[in-house]
Amino acid sequence: MGFFDKIKQGLEKTRRQMGGLFAEFTGENEEFYDELEESLIMADAGAATAEKAVEKLRAKVREESLRGQEEVRAALVDILAEALEVGSFGLRLETRPSVILMVGVNGVGKTTTIGKLAAKYTAGGKKVLLAAADTFRAAAAEQLNVWAERAGCGIVRHEEGSDPASVVFDGIAAAKARGVDLLIIDTAGRLHNKANLMNELSKMRRIISRELPEADIETLMVVDATTGQNGLIQAKQFAESADITGIVLTKLDGTAKGGIVFAIAEEMGLPVKFVGVGEGMDDLMAFEPKSFAEALLS
Question: pTM value?
Answer without folding.
Answer: 0.89
